[in-house]
Amino acid sequence: MTTNLTETDDFIRSTIHEGFRPRVGIILGSGLSGICDGMDVISHLDYRDIPHFPVSTVDSHKGVLSLGFLGGAAVAVLQGRFHYYEGYSAENVVYPVRILRQLGAEILLLTNACGGLNPQFRAGEIMLMDDHINLQWANPLIGRNTDQNRFVDMCNPYSERLATLAEHTALANGITLRKGTYLAVSGSNYETRAELRFMRKIGADVVGMSSVPETLIARQLRMEVLGLSLITNECRPDAPRQVSHAEVIETAAKAEQNLRALVHDILRVC
Ligand code: HPA
User: Whose CA is nearest to atom 3 of ligand 1?
Assistant: First the structure.
């Protein structure tokens, strides 16, 4: 482990009691911080106070790490993630995942906001990430490798066990849960019509600007990954309309309740 990781880990551990070990690490996407409402918080840390932690620059991202219990599970929740479009290096984008693993997390639960490419998907619905396409032109696995696992297998990046749990939970709660492929771009522009047509053609169901780098590192660190994407806007190349960050945040806020119910119930049984 690098010195930085050790110092970050030591600092976070100094704010919790020794026996506390988060089993699930959660990263919350744009406008989705309400998912941790009702959390029994043990430690609440501003990113700015955590040694070597990058600081989130997107307004809708809070920049807080909370440790405690949610839905009965011991969790570490990151409210605010780091994106390539903010100018962070690949190393910084995935730094929180390394920390979550270091703290003891075996499961990584990712949430994100995305645009729906699949014409059957509606804004406000949730999609279970079944697979992904990485078009970010960046990869956090590139570089000097201190981990043993250099060539990370990607034939099944998202845990089938957790996906099945999520599907059962959605059914029990009467929540529509789509399943599909997430395509990651670096952003921060939204897509052109030609890009949207291309993305549909190559098999993507939704498009977003995050989550894939985190999944890559989580799989390298042998964590189980569950990805839940909230569709905030419908991408229609043949009936285009402007997308705005404000709209993305507004739809995320409206639909967050379903995602919260789903996450809390998954945590009860995972
Ligand atoms: N494209 C890319 N990222 C997004 C979108 C989109 O349409 N909506 C929310 N995140």
Answer: 208
Reported pTM: 0.93
Catalytic residue among 33, 60, 83, 88: 83
Q: Which residues line ligand 1 (CB under 6 A)?
A: 113-115, 190-191, 207-209, 232-233, 235, 243, 248
Q: Cα 102 to chain center, whole Å?
A: 18
Per-residue confidence at 128, pLDDT binned at 50, 70, 90?
Answer: very high
What's the CATH fold of domain 2-269? Rossmann fold (3.40.50)
Under 8 Å CB-to-CB from 109, ≥6 apart: which residues? 24, 25, 26, 27, 225, 226, 227, 228, 263, 266, 267
Q: For residue 38, give the DSSP letter.
A: T
**pLDDT in the model for residue 1:** 58
The answer to whether 111 and 29 have CB atoms below 8 angstroms apart is yes
Return d(Cα 21, Cα 107) in angstroms, integer: 12
So what's the pLDDT on residue 185? 98
88: annotated active-site residue: no
194-236 pLDDT, tens per residue? 999 999 999 999 999 999 999 999 999 999 999 999 999 999 9
Q: Which atom of ligand 1 is nearest to the CA of 190?
A: 1
Is 127 designated active site? no
Cα 113 to ligand 1 centroid, rounded to whole Å: 7
* Ligand 1 atom nearest to 191, measured from its CA: 1
Instruction: Please name the helix (run of DSSP H) or strand (run of DSSP E) that holds residue 130, with its range, or none.
Output: strand 126-135
Cα gap 260→254, rounded to integer Å: 11
What are the sequence ranges of the domains in the chain?
2-269
- Cα of 56 to ligand 1 centre, how many Å? 18
**Lowest-pLDDT range, 101-110, 148-157, 161-170, 248-257?**
248-257
pLDDT at 240 over 80: no
